[in-house]
Design brief:
Blueprint (H helix, E strand, L loop, with lengths): L9 E5 L4 H12 L3 E6 L2 H14 L5 E5 L5 H18 L6 E4 L17 H23 L3 E6 L22 H22 L5 E7 L14 H10 L6 H13 L10 E3 L2 E2 L9 H14 L5
Parallel strand pairs: 1-2, 1-4, 2-3, 4-5, 5-6, 6-7
Antiparallel strand pairs: 7-8
Helix pairs in contact: 1-2, 1-7, 3-4, 4-5, 5-8
The chain binds NADP nicotinamide-adenine-dinucleotide phosphate.
The site of NADP nicotinamide-adenine-dinucleotide phosphate has 28 residues, from helix 1.
Length: about 290
């Protein structure tokens, strides 16, 4: 494993073992930024490390393994990250890129008893960000970039059954989780304006990855296999998140939702302050924060 050099910036990228996250990690390393990737599979993380090292000789890449659908593992991951940041970067984190995500075509309960897409795509983002907030504040001006999706449009938070236990639907659960990403971003900026940390949501567009073929089968896997062929490359999908994490000019724009490296209006629902505040408080309860 590489020895980190002093005075280099470091960023954490979740879901860096494949797809858009791997492309984000590679692009950041190419800019001379050290990256700590997070993945759930040691084998895929080793493959990703080799791929990044081949693309960027001398890359500052390391991986941490965690299943982010487990809140225990998110907290343990955060503790390991804080140790690493303290040891090599004076505790400072320049950016957290919340990219890990999944699609599940049947109702799947996590070990905490939550619906998988809500737990992984939203709650892990929420919890890991708050766990690393002191390091981000110490690295300010720092960024939290969460990879959302155009799927956040034309949907809402299903307050009476957030886990969709009564009426599970793959797309409904995915759309709700991606809407939660944007609402979290907006609410983070309201609640932590003084921290020097700014949050953004990145829309990568349709990208040719295997996301819809993992944890799925039948019609969902078949549909995604065909749909993804019209998608852009992971490198293209990564560009907006990389821009948000690294470009100083981003701070001069008020927009929180970006696509093609430009601000774009998110759905009107995503900007409802009362709903976002309610989601924040629900997320705190579901993560056992403040108990
Ligand atoms: N592809 C698109 O068209 C598209 C469009 C809009 C938004 N997005 C968003 O982009 C993000 C990345 O998706 P992608 O298309 O690049 O899919 P992907 O190739 O499947 O990448 C997802 C990443 O998340 C990791 N991951 C999945 N479950 C995990 C868990 N329980 N714990 C830890 N890591 C986990 C995966 O690990 P493994 O390598 O082990 O599978 C992988 O590294 C997602 O948030 C997705 O919602 C994608």
């Amino acid at each position: 494993m590489k020895t980190y050099s002093a005075n280099r910036k470091v960023m954490v990228v979740t879901g860096a073992s494949s797809g858009i996250g791997l492309a984000i990690a590679t692009a950041l390393c190419a800019k001379g930024i050290d990256v700590i990737g997070v993945g759930r599979s040691p084998e895929r993380c080793d493959q990703a490390t080799a791929s990044i090292a081949a693309a960027v000789p001398g890359a500052g890449i390391a991986f941490e393994i965690a299943d982010l659908s487990s809140q225990t593992q998110v907290r343990e991951l955060a503790a390991r990250l804080r140790m690493r940041l303290g040891a090599a970067y004076s505790g400072q984190l320049a950016a957290l890129i919340n990219n890990a995500g999944a699609i599940a075509n049947w109702y799947t309960a996590t070990e905490d008893g939550y619906e998988l897409q809500f737990a992984l795509n939203h709650l892990a983002t929420f919890l890991l960000t708050l766990e690393l907030l002191p390091n981000l504040a110490s690295g300010a001006p720092a960024r939290v970039v969460t990879v959302s999706s155009a799927s956040h449009r034309n949907t809402r938070i299903h307050w009476k059954d957030v886990m969709l236990r009564r009426n599970y639907n793959t797309l409904l659960a995915y759309k709700q989780s991606k809407l939660a990403n944007v609402m979290f971003t907006a609410e983070f900026n309201r609640r932590h304006a003084a921290s020097g940390v700014r949050a953004y949501a990145a829309d990568p567009g349709l990208v040719n990855t295997e996301i819809g073929m993992k944890g799925t089968s039948g019609i969902v896997a078949w549909f995604w296999d065909r749909r993804r062929r019209g998608g852009k490359s992971p490198e293209y999908g990564a560009a907006t998140a990389v821009h948000l994490a690294t470009d100083p000019s981003v701070a001069s724009f008020p927009g929180i939702y970006w696509k093609d490296s430009r601000p774009k209006a998110p759905s009107a629902y995503a900007l409802r302050e009362a709903e976002a505040s309610r989601l924040w408080e629900l997320s705190e309860r579901l993560c056992g924060i403040g108990e």
